[in-house]
## 1
Amino acid sequence: MNNNDTYRTIDEPSEGLFKDKGSKFLAYAYPVSDEEQIKKHIQTLKDTHYKARHHCYAYRLGQNGEQYRANDDGEPSGTAGRPIHGQLMSFKVTNILVVVVRYFGGTLLGTSGLINAYKMATVDALENSKIIKKIISDRFRIQFDYTIQSLIERLIKEYDLSIDNAVYNVDCTYDISVRKNHSDVVLEKMGKIEGARLTVLSRG
């Protein structure tokens, strides 16, 4: 089966830790779906770890991580955000944020030391997480008369569609989720059922 409608992410937040010459690097990984969630997580960590010197992060959004950012938060350019982002790509995960909070230990680590520290803290957080595969779905609303309910139900069963919401009044209304790879076929077959009215709720 073609799996170009799936992506890898983590199922719940996880943490990691790396220590070097007295400095502590605390890594926090979060599954996220938009920049608003990202801002909230970062601000919460800044509030919690207000004594920490740096709160560096990287995130990837979108099926292929096409929306991304890496932030060094005061560390030398390229020594923090980039190695964090590099591990997100290495683990092939997206819709994810990793923030590494650094408590300075008094000894400078140098460029290579910093890169290694932010990388290893991120690796620890990701290895402590559960990586899952998610399916990208489109959502549609189908309105139909009771007389064709059996035809609708047959199509739902055939493609293992998820009914997110069902309303039974004079007509029936189903809000359904369809995996992206099946959307065109399902829409075409639904369109051939006389009396079925389709509305697109969301794509991907």
## 2
Amino acid sequence: MKLDGKIALITGAAHRLGKSIALALADQGCDLMIHFNQAQEAAAETAEQAQSVGIRAVIVQADLSQTEGVQEVYRAIDSAYGRIDLLANSAATLERRDILEVDEEDWRRAIGLNLKGAFFVLQEAARRMRSAGGGAVVNISDTAGHRPWKEFPLHSISKAGLEMLTQVAAFALAPDIRVNAVIPGPTLKPPSMADERWKEVTGRLPLGQAVPSHNVAQAVVFLMTNEYITGHSLRVDGGDLLT
């Protein structure tokens, strides 16, 4: 699939990995719908950078853990572009919690965004893609979906669900819509993590350093362009699985 001229929605695209994915798709000639929840200024900066290569970029604010937030995104897409061809499901939250201290609000927030939100964003995209003849989806997963992180139980649970969503959707929506996932390794240091801890995390990787975010974005582009890959989770993790 050639991406030039396609319409792409990137959730959580204001900064960090979502921003890298948005800019990589802009470089491919895609017009963008840049979703954010709170970081409006950062989203505007992402849009401005994307527009510098000659494409259109529109920003939309929404809380994707709520059904109304998902609908707000698609009202913006329908108004600005009238269709969607590509989806990068990147929006997520990562919160440290003791499993015995998790409450219903923690569950609603984490599962609501990471899994419920991803599901309904994909569903609405697929409805529009199918009526337009097809499209491609890439979900941004996590090593936590395969290896339990005891200090981040809801993140692990939600990403494991996202892995199954990828496979179920790929099977259900074939052949006109392909659905894949990317599993990044340690890419960008969490703001709350100490520098020394980050050095430990990335230093144990077989490749010895954090995965550059543009390499993860390149994997998203690859899965969107390759017309014979679906239901696959591609690791871009610096060998993290091996440790």
## 3
Amino acid sequence: MNSQGPLATLYVGIALCAFYCALVWINTLLPLFLQPLFIIPVTWLLEISQGKRPGAAGEG
């Protein structure tokens, strides 16, 4: 037998909605902050593989 009322069901529904909204928000923003951590070293490796010094942009 269920002893909780409709307000408890509504409360849990609102809490789950807030949880999933926060989860989507974090998963949307996380790549924006983590992408430079991977992109910058990859550009360094590409410059080294092309025979350039890393960070020597604009030199002949």
